[in-house]
């Protein structure tokens, strides 16, 4: 079935959940694909993504965030429960509004994350981060920052809470 997938040139949305997939063919022939959901599989790479706006790869084996030919098309990315180690790639997705990277192996939040001016929801719960860049607190549209179950020092947590209170921020901090 997956080999015939690339013949579905008009396909706009695809969900393959709990299919034990370990491989998909290059998807570059699916130029109309805008929603791709592949949760609960055993995938570690995807090739040929063009202008997907919603990508859900929850519970797979990705160590890297996939690339897109049109990175600004992506608005929602869910890679929870993957062994991803680096989130720098997300800074290319300039129109992201929803970013979910909980239960990953990410240890650093790149300062460039502030370039994601439309980011509304950021989930980095149960990762390996130990520091939250203060610049995140000034992101214009950020409403939810989830950093529970990390090794962020209590002094930093208290300082961030105080800063949010002083700013009368709209950010809901889950820590």
Attribute tags:
mainly beta; 8% helix; eight-stranded parallel beta sheet; 8 strands; 14% strand; Leucine-rich repeat, LRR (right-handed beta-alpha superhelix); 175 residues; 1 helix
Descriptive report:
This protein is mainly β and 175 residues long. The protein has one helix and eight strands. The protein has one helix at 154-167, and strands at residues 13-15, 35-37, 54-56, 76-78, 98-100, 121-123, 144-146, 172-174. The model has no long low-confidence stretch (mean pLDDT 95).
Stretches where pLDDT is under 50 for at least 5 consecutive residues are none
What share of residues is helical? under 10%
Q: Please tell me the total number of domains.
A: 2
Main β-sheet description: 8 strands, parallel
Order of helices and strands: EEEEEEEHE
Strand percentage: 5-15%
- Globally, the shape reads elongated
* DSSP helical segment count: 1
Total number of β-strand segments? Answer: 8
Tell me the span between the first and last alpha carbons. 43 Å
Spatial order of strands in the largest sheet:
1-2-3-4-5-6-7-8
Radius of gyration: 17 Å
Give me the secondary-structure category.
Answer: mainly beta
Arithmetic mean of pLDDT:
95
């Amino acid at each position: 079935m997956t080999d015939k997938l690339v013949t579905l040139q008009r396909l706009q949305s695809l969900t393959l959940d709990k299919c034990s997939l370990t491989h998909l063919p290059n998807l570059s022939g699916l130029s109309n694909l805008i929603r791709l959901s592949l949760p609960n599989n055993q995938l570690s790479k995807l090739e040929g993504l063009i202008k997907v706006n919603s990508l859900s790869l929850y519970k797979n084996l990705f160590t890297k965030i996939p690339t897109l030919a049109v990175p600004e098309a992506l608005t929602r990315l869910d890679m929870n429960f993957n062994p991803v180690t680096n989130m720098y790639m997300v800074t290319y997705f300039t129109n992201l509004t929803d970013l979910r990277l909980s239960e990953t192996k990410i240890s650093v939040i790149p300062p460039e994350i502030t370039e994601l001016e439309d980011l509304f929801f950021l989930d980095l719960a149960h990762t390996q981060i130990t520091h939250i860049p203060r610049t995140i607190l000034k992101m214009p549209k950020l409403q939810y920052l989830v950093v529970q179950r990390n090794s962020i020092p209590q002094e930093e947590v208290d300082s961030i809470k105080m800063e949010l209170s002083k700013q009368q921020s709209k950010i809901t901090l889950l820590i």
